[in-house]
Write a structure and sequence with these properties.
Blueprint lengths: L5 H21 L3 H10 L4 H25 L9 H18 L5 H20 L14 H18 L4 H12 L4 H25 L5 H25 L1 H23 L1
Length: 252
């Protein structure tokens, strides 16, 4: 493990708390933590692995909180979760063999469109709306697609998932946000297993950050439950646009 000063350890732990809070509402916590890890001098592969490890705990925290408070039902999601698992494994293996430059170039503009959809769509609300896709179509298409994307790349996965549940299944924003968590958890945990097998996780740092992620995600998910679309919509719009800008600057 790289030698990190106490200041860096405290700073990275604070970043993990912030990432857990933001990710429980809008996803994209990795866009906070990963640059911080790289800035601290953690090698790229270890940074990716450590980020996946600590983020799994944050997603687990918010998923358990939504489940405990009755906003998440796992049984209707079981097939979507299976497809997400398969997609994540394929995506993680695929990304190691191909150049992801095209995806990186196109993604910012997709995210901008997604932010616009969240800003103006009447389906992003606190009430359920009629579904546009039945579960038998939604599960392999969206579950598998999100798993593939999460395993191969990942930024904005929570936002894509929330938009899909709200726009295609008609879920209100509390239910849509809650339903994203098991899918993200499955995708990230699948990638993490591969990183652990390769011995890339910096466990002491990852576990310290995981505790902070867990706490931040609990706080954020409680706010989602209380505030609903009034909180989720603006946070997702701003977070998605921030990811898009960062990717544009990175590729510029």
């Amino acid at each position: 493990m790289p030698e990190l000063s106490l200041v860096w350890l405290v700073g990275l732990t604070a970043a993990a708390f912030a990432a857990g809070f933001i990710s429980s509402i809008a996803g994209a916590g990795g866009m906070i933590v990963l640059p911080c890890l790289l800035w601290a001098g953690v090698p790229p592969v270890q940074a990716l692995a450590t980020n996946k490890c600590q983020s799994v705990f944050g997603t687990l925290s918010s998923a358990l909180n939504f489940l405990r408070k009755g906003h998440l039902q796992l049984r209707p999601l079981r097939w979507a979760l299976l497809y997400a698992l398969i997609g994540a494994v394929i995506g993680t293996l695929w990304v190691q063999r191909v150049d992801a430059a095209l995806l990186e170039a196109v993604l910012p503009y997709v995210l901008i469109v997604l932010a616009g959809y969240f800003a103006v769509s009447p389906r992003i609300a606190d009430v359920d709306t009629p579904p546009r896709l039945r579960a038998s179509v939604f599960d392999p298409l969206v579950g598998g697609g999100l798993g593939l994307y999460g395993g191969a790349f990942g930024p904005g996965m929570g936002s894509f998932s929330a938009a899909a549940f709200a726009g295609l299944r008609g879920f209100n924003m509390r239910k849509a946000t809650a339903s994203t968590k098991p899918l993200v958890l499955v995708a990230n945990a699948s990638s993490l297993v591969i990183f652990i097998a390769g011995g890339h996780v910096l466990w002491a740092l990852a576990l310290s950050m995981a505790v902070a992620q867990f706490a931040g995600a609990r706080l954020g998910s409680n706010l989602v439950i209380r505030r609903g679309a009034a909180l989720v919509k603006p946070v997702i719009v701003l977070t998605t646009l921030a990811i898009a800008v960062r990717l544009v600057l990175k590729n510029g």
